[in-house]
């Protein structure tokens, strides 16, 4: 470890270094980041992309390393599976079969599979106390725990606003009709939440245990039809409700083979809405720089109005950038050691399509070999 920090230690001193397992990880971000990178590589090569195809044949993938609240690294990954069913193109039955084949929320049986049971218990169970990041606005848990139990996986078909303007209807009347439908929808969702509240209350009880969904609903004086109808209209969009036993409603979705290999928390989902998925990924791809951009905008605005020359302008902006970015020790290691922060199965080639666009000069080594009067200093565009 001393050599990793490039610290010179006499052999005797190095031998005397004692670390408890937890202390050494926390105080050694270099090893943490290097192990993380190797683990991600191994997960991709030996598991996800391997011939055993634990989640099907991968056609494409993209992942991005992110650092949680200036702390530890994790990845956000999109995977395209060959011949996977498409929502709204293929029957829901095929989509649900596909989801059930690869995604589970089951607490594994301690007798038949003690290994998986241990991993699921340790890393896949959402804390009943929740965490700081759970609370957002007036939502108690933005991840939706405890999850509503279901005896089979299904995709909700929420009621939608369905208005068509009649030929003789003026705009104001039509708008009023839409508003009325929106109010009715909101009222329906409020009622659905109230219907489901006793279920949630009972699931929150740490001492409660249920033999089945029917048992749970019985204790809440609800019929299956009432429960199912309320669950259908909770969200305004389509939502995959995974098969969940009531005793497992704190277990987050995982793939058994990937979890066995990864041995750390995961959340795996079937993408039902391409647009939401792109929005989600882009918010993560751009996230670390967003706040910085706002900050830099203010600095630039301030510098422009002050009476300084271009050189000092750049200097002030550079100083603002270098002093105001908050990064974790692990992120510093990842960036300074040029560790991989994103990977994609497709490479990107920049194509120069505008003659007045971006110009790049040849490398300095080549420029130095050129005739002093030569004007061929620019790289030619790919096009
Ligand atoms: Zn929570």
Structure description:
The protein is mostly helical and 383 residues long. The chain folds into 2 domains: 1-87 and 280-348, no CATH class; 88-277, no CATH class. 45% of the residues lie in helices and 7% in strands. It has helices at residues 11-16, 21-26, 29-48, 92-102, 114-124, 171-204, 213-219, 224-232, 256-262, 274-305, 310-324, 329-336, 364-369; strands spanning 58-67, 73-81, 154-155, 240-241, 342-344. The strands form 2 sheets. Strands 2-1-5 form a 3-stranded antiparallel β-sheet, sandwiched between helices. A two-stranded antiparallel sheet has the order 3-4. Strand 1 and strand 2 (73-81) form a beta hairpin. 11% of the residues are buried. The model has no long low-confidence stretch (mean pLDDT 84). It binds zinc ion. Zinc ion is lined by residues 126, 130, 134, 141, 143, 145. Residues 126, 130, 134, 141, 143, 145 line the site of zinc ion.
